[in-house]
Each structure stands twice: as structure tokens, then as C-alpha cells.
């Protein structure tokens, strides 16, 4: 991310920017509500990623334009780190489907106020599945941080992460764009 930032903002003091970004990130994580451990909640890592992006913007909002923010999102999506996180994962595996089934049930318990709430259904004979998010943890952070305008730019990451897990995301609505839900429809990509 910083390599990209230095390329698009050559006059930026990158050391100072990194320092501000890291400090803002730490503060934002501390302000974010706990939604359970990574083993308990499949979306816990997404909180950290959302805070990373939001704190990048907040580190220097006068210089981080929407085009630069989009480029940062793109550089994260194309990074080796992101590819390695999803390496070997299959969005249609029993393990992945079970995470969604359990996660959907858990989400409706509303144990954590800033958690995701979603419905899940699947037909593995197709194969396809549907995730309908009624509430989004990253949107809740964005609202608290007065950064909802960034959400449409953040939501595009879902396409890359689905692709890395061997799926294709079809989606017409997102909470981040002001819609009533995020309507994930995940299918196998055409050969």
C-alpha cells in the first residue's frame, strides 16, 4: 500500500504518513466494538481490514482523494498478502458453507451490537449460495467514524475475495451504497 501511495503522491512524506496511518488505525481499532474472536466470528478479520482502509484515508484526508483511495483498495486486493490469505480456500467447500450456516444463526442472536446480521441459503447442486446481509459491521464502523461515503469504494473488495476462493460474486445491492441489504449471490465462474 505504501509503495502505491509513494508512486501516486511522490511529494508526500511517506514516513510521516505511515506514522499517522498506524496511529489512526490503533485508535480506530480501540473505538471499534468487539464482535467476537476470529475463531468465533468469520467476519472478525474484516473489521481489521475495514479499519485499515478507513485509517488510511483519515491519515491525510486532504491528500487521499477518492481515486487514490480506490487505488489503495485495488492494491490491497491485488496484493500477495490478500491472495495468500485466501489461497487454497474454496467458497463451496463444506467447511466454508458450515461457517456461513453457523455464522447466520449466530448473527441473529445479536450478541455483539456492531456485528453483521445475515441470512444464508445454498444449493450445492448448482453450485450457488446466497448471503443477504441485513446489517454490516464495516458500515457500523464507517457510520461511527463519519466515513460512510467510503463504503461503496470498500465494498468492491468482496468481488476479489470471492474470486480468490473460487467463486463469482453477483450483487445488485449493498448497505454501503444505501440499499436495504447486501445481496450476495455466489456462483462457480464459467469455465
What topology emerges from the helices and strands here?
Elements: H1 2-8, H2 14-31, H3 44-59, H4 66-77, H5 80-86, H6 94-109, E1 117-123, E2 128-135, H7 137-144, H8 151-154, H9 157-164, E3 168-170, E4 182-187
Antiparallel strand pairs: 1-2, 2-4, 3-4
Helix pairs in contact: 2-3, 3-7
The ordered string of helix (H) and strand (E) elements is: HHHHHHEEHHHEE
Looking at the chains present, what oligomeric state does this protein adopt?
A: single chain
Estimated structural class? alpha+beta
Distance between the termini: 32 Å
Strand order of the largest sheet: 1-2-4-3
Shape type: globular
Low-confidence stretches: none
Describe the biggest sheet?
Answer: 4 strands, antiparallel
User: If you compute it from the alpha carbons, what radius of gyration comes out, rounded to the nearest whole angstrom?
Assistant: 17 Å
Whole-number average pLDDT?
A: 95
Estimated share of beta-strand residues: 5-15%
Report the count of strand segments.
4
Query: Counting H and I runs of at least 4 residues, what is the number of helices?
Result: 9
Helix percent band: 40-55%
Amino acid at each position: 500500500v505504501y509503495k502505491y501511495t509513494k508512486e501516486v503522491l511522490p511529494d508526500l512524506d511517506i514516513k510521516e504518513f505511515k506514522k499517522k496511518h498506524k496511529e489512526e488505525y490503533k485508535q480506530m481499532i480501540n473505538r471499534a466494538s468487539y464482535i467476537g474472536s476470529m475463531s468465533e466470528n468469520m467476519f472478525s478479520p474484516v473489521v481489521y481490514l475495514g479499519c485499515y482502509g478507513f485509517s488510511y484515508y483519515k491519515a491525510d484526508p486532504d491528500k487521499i482523494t477518492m481515486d487514490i483511495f480506490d487505488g489503495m483498495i485495488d492494491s490491497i486486493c491485488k496484493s500477495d498478502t490478500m491472495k495468500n490469505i485466501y489461497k487454497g480456500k474454496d467458497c463451496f467447500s463444506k467447511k466454508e458453507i458450515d461457517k456461513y450456516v453457523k455464522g447466520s444463526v449466530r448473527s441473529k442472536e445479536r450478541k455483539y451490537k456492531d456485528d453483521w446480521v445475515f441470512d444464508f441459503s445454498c444449493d450445492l447442486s448448482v453450485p450457488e449460495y446466497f448471503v443477504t446481509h441485513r446489517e454490516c459491521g464495516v458500515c457500523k464502523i464507517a457510520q461511527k467514524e463519519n466515513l460512510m461515503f467510503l463504503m461503496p469504494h470498500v465494498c468492491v473488495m468482496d468481488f476479489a475475495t470471492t474470486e480468490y476462493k473460487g467463486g463469482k460474486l453477483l450483487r445488485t445491492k449493498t448497505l454501503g451504497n444505501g440499499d436495504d441489504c447486501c445481496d450476495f449471490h455466489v456462483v462457480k465462474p464459467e469455465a
